[in-house]
Amino acid sequence: MKLYSKIKTRPEDFVVEEVPLLKPEDEGKYHLLELKKRDVSTLEALRIISRLEKIPLKDIGFAGLKDRYAVTTQYLTVPVEYSLEESCYKIVRNRWVKVDKVNFDKEMGFCIKPIGKVNRPLGLGDLKGNKFTVVVRNFEKNLRERFYRNYEVVRRYGFPNYFGEQRFGSVKSRDDFVLRYLLRGDFDGALKSYFFGKSQIDFWGDWKKLYKTLSPALEEYEKDLIRGLMRGLTPEKAFRILPKNVRLMFNFAFQSFLWNEFLREYVEEKYPFVRVPFINKWKLSYFLEVYDVDYLIQLQIPYTGREFRVNDEVLKGIMKKVFRKYGIKEEWFDKEVGGIIVMTDGLRKAVVFPEGFKILEKTKRSMKLTFTLPPGSYATVLLRFLLKGKI
């Protein structure tokens, strides 16, 4: 299956609009900015704003990471001491520069626009939801029939609230988890995984050659990390050169994988299900029928169960099984590693329902649809089921 052969054939086929919680006012301690981007990740846009506008990255607040290969609109906050005007940015002669405008129908780039002021910064999850407008292409007859049949399941029972592939693509490699090395205290392995995943590399340890080989594609902080190794820093000290939000992504990615495994095993244990292809040859399992829908709608699954105790005996057994399978030790919960606290607890809803689901346009070969999902839920997870993995 070719990833995104049905959706995201063009960035403008996948439009995401943040539904904000904060309302702009005339006065406040923070500027509220609208960020519109095409074919750029949220973190990349923030790093460019930080560098070109001389604003520390830690002072830029945002509610969530939006898809790269899409046209997305979201909101940022920065303290009022920074003066910002409406600005656009794109790559010119291999460098990011300010420009007068970006053509969001065909150009890679982004624009920011001040829309007012607020009295607090935005934080992760600080939004009502996300509205999606998606064009499905190559929408042949048998796929169309499957789509309507699967949507009836979603309408009645919702869909499993798995983390989508974006959660695992925010670090260098999707085929390995940096956190697994960190938990064992193997910072050298963690750095190797960060740069190369599971790929074999014969010049690891030759930091000058590593720098020369990778430098053209590296962020500045990644260059600083390798320069630190060249100066003789230990892998642990060099690892701490990575920005905190990047280091936290390693934790989020692995915990999201484990949480997906909890939910997948739970669905397979309790309900008739179908397995759908996911990234890295992983699978996601979707229920086809639910006999205790009122219970499932209320079910929240913890990340570790240390703070939020599990009363569901089936779920409790599954979490122990998954932790055992991946060698997770309780002593790692809430552990400080590399300047971050890892394996923290929290709750996430097992199922969600799309709101405002509508088919806007139909042809023999395509369909345009719209829907809204709550914060932290993934349109691609819904679409994988509706299209049985053929996205």
UniProtKB/TrEMBL annotation:
Q: Does the keyword tRNA processing apply?
A: yes
Any keyword tRNA processing?
yes
- Cite the entry's keywords alphabetically: Isomerase, tRNA processing
Q: Which domain of life is it from?
A: Bacteria
Q: Which Pfam families match?
A: TruD
Q: Which reaction does it catalyse?
A: uridine(13) in tRNA = pseudouridine(13) in tRNA
| Annotated SUPFAM superfamilies | Pseudouridine synthase (SSF55120)
Gene Ontology BP term (one): tRNA pseudouridine synthesis
Q: Which residues form the TRUD domain?
A: 158-353
Note the Gene3D superfamilies from the entry: TruD, catalytic domain (3.30.2350.20)
What InterPro entries is this protein classified in? Answer: PsdUridine_synth_cat_dom_sf, PsdUridine_synth_TruD, PsdUridine_synth_TruD_CS, PsdUridine_synth_TruD_insert, TruD_catalytic
Q: What is its EC number?
A: 5.4.99.27
Give the first-level EC class, as a single word. Answer: isomerase
Q: Name one GO molecular function term.
A: RNA binding
Catalytic residues per the record?
D67 (nucleophile)
Member of which family? Belongs to the pseudouridine synthase TruD family.
Report the protein's function.
Responsible for synthesis of pseudouridine from uracil-13 in transfer RNAs.
* Protein name from the UniProt record: tRNA pseudouridine synthase D
Q: Which organism is it from?
A: Thermovibrio guaymasensis
